[in-house]
Write a structure and sequence with these properties.
alpha+beta; 21% helix; Alternate signal-mediated exported protein; 7-stranded mixed β-sheet
């Protein structure tokens, strides 16, 4: 191979190498571009999913209008309105239960004069509560777990009453038999809006139906809607006995809310075979 042929060979090799390098570079660039674009799209999808996650909340709240009374007196009636408002973002079904708390204090019987052998004839004494100048565990009117027999209620720094009767977590039974002292408290429900027999609900709407410890609201609550008031007031019987003078009484409503899924039947323990609550909701739940 002469000198001229060598130069031509080298030139051809150079051209081939340059072309291969150019192709390689182009291919590499395309891979980098595609890779970067794929990575960007994936990342963007993840961000969009987080930003657009649409978890609508189920939420409801009890609303009360209550003139609080700590020291009840015979004949007192106080407003106790209870309703539920859907403050969430989806339709909901609600039910309520009521729990009572009571504590009374020792009465001074030092001036009793027994007229016969039956001590029940003279239980009331002078009708004033017995005063103690020292305390044990104090009763907090806002914390019912402190409403315990033997605990003391502070009237002032040197005057205390001692609890002699305490009833805690007493589930209210609509239309059920009540005994003293709770029978002295009358819960005044909203007229013609609370029922416990299916026949009484015929032609009615926006009512409460009582069954097995719960008041079920008849309608689906849309967001921002409220129920009818369950109650209007609480009264203390005018013939309330002296031995319960100055007692503390508290009525606590508890609410449950559920979406419109058929899980409501099992979650709330409703019996399709016997409970009217099932007939109340069966056509309102999601198919």
């Amino acid at each position: 191979m002469n000198q001229k042929e060598k130069r031509q060979h080298l030139f051809r090799v150079f051209l081939k190498s340059k072309l291969l390098f150019a192709c390689f570079s182009l291919a590499l660039s395309l891979l980098l571009i595609v890779g970067s674009t794929y990575a960007w799209i994936t990342s963007a999808d993840e961000r969009v999913n987080r930003a657009n996650a649409n978890h609508k909340t189920l939420s409801a709240m009890i609303e009360e209008d209550f003139n609080r009374v700590y020291d009840w007196a015979p004949g007192v009636t106080k407003t106790k309105k209870i309703k539920v408002t859907n403050n969430g973002e989806i339709p909901t079904i609600v039910r309520l239960s009521l729990t009572e708390f009571f504590v009374s204090f020792e009465v001074d019987t030092s001036d009793n004069h027994r007229l016969d052998a039956n001590p029940q004839n003279n239980l009331n004494g002078n009708g004033n509560l017995k005063i103690f100048d020292s305390f044990t565990t104090l009763i907090d009117v806002k914390r019912t777990e402190t409403w315990v027999v033997g605990n003391t209620y502070e009237v002032n720094s040197n005057t205390y009453y001692k609890a002699n009767t305490a009833l805690i977590d007493q589930s209210y039974v609509y239309g059920g038999a009540r005994t003293l002292p709770l029978s002295a408290f009358k819960l005044n429900f909203t007229a013609n809006k609370v029922f416990d027999t299916p026949a009484a609900t015929s032609g009615k709407d926006n009512y409460w139906y009582y069954e097995d410890g719960y008041f079920y609201y008849s309608e689906i609550l849309q967001p921002k809607e409220s129920t009818t008031d369950l109650m209007e007031s609480v009264s203390l019987n005018a013939g309330y006995a002296n031995q319960y003078k100055g007692a503390l009484y508290k009525l606590v409503p508890e609410m449950e809310a559920h979406d419109l899924s058929k899980d409501l039947i099992a979650d709330w323990g409703i019996n399709p075979a016997s409970d009217h609550a099932y007939n109340l909701y069966k056509d309102k739940l999601a198919k």
